[in-house]
Amino acid sequence: MNKVNVALLAFPGIRAFDTSVITEVWGTDHTDRGVPAFDLRRVAADPAPIPLRGGLSLTPDRTLTWLDRASLILVPGLDDHRSPAPDPVLRALRRAHHRGTPIAALCGGAFTVAQAGLLDGRRAVTHWNLAELLRTQHPQVTVEPDALFIEDDNIWTSAGTAAGIDLCLHLIRTAHGAEAAASIARSMVTAPFRTGTQAQFIEHPTPHADRDADALASVREHALRHLHEPLTIADLAAQAGMSARSFARHFTAATGSTPLRWLLDQRVAAAQKLLEHTDLPMPEVARRAGFGSEITMRQHFTTRLSTSPRAYRASFAATR
């Protein structure tokens, strides 16, 4: 079986962590677990070793012309987001996008793609602490505040650090199936799919009372055990021993998400698992995930995942 060509775009200033994530996902042999064979190449303008922070270095093994053969180009984040990328790298990115090659930028790699002009008029995301800088440096880019990753016109961008892992696994999942992504995720001891946004990680004042945090953790655990039931925000507030208004305020401060949005995210995640790993009919999937009806489930799938439950099952159902 032919290997899938994947390019890690390398130049001075890229982050060691992102290069390691890319290498772990596409540069490790998982074919014994049913994952396709990948040919990951470190592509740079010249073959000189590239210093990385922490005393590390990366040695390119292909020049930029190899990008013509790549099925996917991965752009690591940067140590200094104000430093310009080399012109040959930016030109190569523009040519690749014109050819229709997917480009995925991890964390601050969005700055490199933006420097190439490829994000002008498009949506993008980066680490929440860098969002304002990206808006300032590239005002033509529509910077989303809290998504974990975003695709616009075959260009992917992701939020900070761990969200780069989320994006990499999503790309595997989309191109090669849920089982391939799950296999790689298991080897990395991480979740194959996370719901929610990076809003929950933005710095917020620590709640004053630990008892509130404990109560909210207990409520979330209760909700996950009873997703199939018609839970309401009033039910959850009562479980926490709070008024609905107080509960909503404390919940949002602790998680970065409203109770309703969090609950719907958990229901979508539960439905995804059922669609991937069971043959249950749609009405039963909807019931077990707590949506009440297939129509309601379909509406929330469309809103959150831009696809229908049936299309999701067709794409990601595990081989049984």
Describe this structure in words.
The protein is α/β, with parallel strands linked by helices. It folds into 2 domains: 4-188, Class I glutamine amidotransferase (GATase) domain (Rossmann fold); 206-320, Orthogonal Bundle (Arc Repressor Mutant, subunit A), CATH 1.10.10. Helices cover 46% and strands 12% of the residues. The protein has 13 helices and 11 strands. The strands form 3 sheets. A 7-stranded mixed β-sheet has the order 5-2-1-6-7-11-10, with helices on both faces. A two-stranded antiparallel sheet has the order 3-4. The protein has a two-stranded parallel ribbon with strand order 8-9. Strand 1 (4-9), helix 1 (16-26) and strand 2 form a beta-alpha-beta unit. Helix 1 (16-26) packs parallel to helix 5 and helix 10 packs across helix 12 (294-305). It is globular and about 60 Å long. Residues 196-211 have low confidence and may be disordered.
> Could you say what the CATH topology of the largest domain is called?
Rossmann fold
What is the oligomeric state here?
A: single chain
Share of helical residues? 40-55%
CATH class descriptor of the largest domain: Alpha Beta
What low-confidence regions span 5 or more consecutive residues with pLDDT below 50?
A: 196-211
Classification by helices and strands: alpha/beta
Number of strands: 11
What is the terminal-to-terminal distance?
Answer: 23 Å
Q: What best-fitting shape do the alpha-carbon axes yield?
A: globular
- Number of contiguous helices: 13
Q: Please state the CA-atom Rg, rounded to the nearest Å.
A: 21 Å
Strand order of the largest sheet: 5-2-1-6-7-11-10
Number of domains: 2
Would you identify the CATH H-level superfamily of the largest domain?
Class I glutamine amidotransferase (GATase) domain
Strand content: 5-15%
Largest sheet: 7 strands, mixed
User: Helices and strands, in N-to-C order?
Assistant: EHEEEEEHEHEHEEEHHHHHHHHH
**CATH architectural name of the largest domain:** 3-Layer(aba) Sandwich
Q: Mean pLDDT, rounded to whole units?
A: 86
